[in-house]
Amino acid sequence: MVSAINANGPAWTSEIDTGDRVLAVNSQSTTGQSAATVTEWLRGPEDSALMLRLLSPGQRRAHTVTLRRAKVPPETVFAFVSGPIVVLRVTAFSSDTAEEMSQYLDQATQDKNLRGLIIDLRGNRGGVLQQAVTAAALLLDHGVAAVTSGRDPQSNHIWAVQGGDMTNGLPIAVLVDGRTASAAEILAAALADHRRAVVIGSATLGKGLVQTVAQLPDEGELFVTWSRVIAPLHWPLQGLGVMPQVCTSLGEADTNRALHTLASGRLANQAAITASRAARYPLTVPNILAIRKACPAALGNDRDISVARDLINHPAWYKTAIAAIPDDAAPAAQLSAAP
């Protein structure tokens, strides 16, 4: 039985759906065969033909699908449906992550009953910076997703996006935790700073440095820190991390109080949000710790998803959390390279 379809693979655009029963592979019946045997039949040389005989649920007549085998990179985006809400679990940012997100978003927005989107970045250690920027472009109409700043003029770059929000302004909640790092933090910061999403969870890791790899003559590698990442509202990701609008790392009782405060039109974590957005490089360690202690880094838990659903299902709560992000009042000089 087909349990899932890789968004990067040739089956994604074919007439294969999850739940289909595989009756035959290249005319070989699967009856009585083990899953390992059928899986081995599915493998083969790149670009070779693969013919599948399938039976879809509720259908009495089987159909045949012919594919061309291809090398498929591991998936990094996984989609789940929770009533009128779609959850996208992003495990890393590889060379195909933004394309995977685009395909799932395109599919999800076909549902006219869709009420919101949850992007789960918990445990995501990052990856390709450009993929985080491209992912942000899928959900922002325009604006700066991030700025990289360093000593070498070539390291200075303003990562601006102008794509078009695929969800047409649908409410978005982003889940983060203490393991969320690097490119994942860039996406969370971009969506939060543009008031496009509510970030829920704990303070993130705070890995806001861009590194380049130089190959050495002895086949070794030298990692060189090239630049630092500055969020759209001009605060540094390095050390500070992303401060969520709704903190869930202080325990269930504190989370419940935060939701009750939201219901009254205020944000419990407002002081930390304001302080984090006002922070500017260079930051001292005591300053970083003073801001982060409002929502200590922690592992994500099941409560995060529940809180995200609550915000999407209560538009007034969502608007209060979105409005907690301050306006961009920083001078243009903040975008210049650091000394």
UniProtKB/TrEMBL annotation:
Transmembrane segments: none annotated. It is an enzyme of class 3 (hydrolase). One of its GO terms (cellular component) is outer membrane-bounded periplasmic space. Coiled coil: none annotated. The keyword Hydrolase applies. Belongs to the peptidase S41A family. PANTHER family: CARBOXY-TERMINAL PROCESSING PROTEASE CTPA (PTHR32060:SF30), TAIL-SPECIFIC PROTEASE (PTHR32060). This is Carboxyl-terminal processing protease. It comes from Acetobacter ghanensis. The lineage of its organism: Bacteria, Pseudomonadati, Pseudomonadota, Alphaproteobacteria, Acetobacterales.
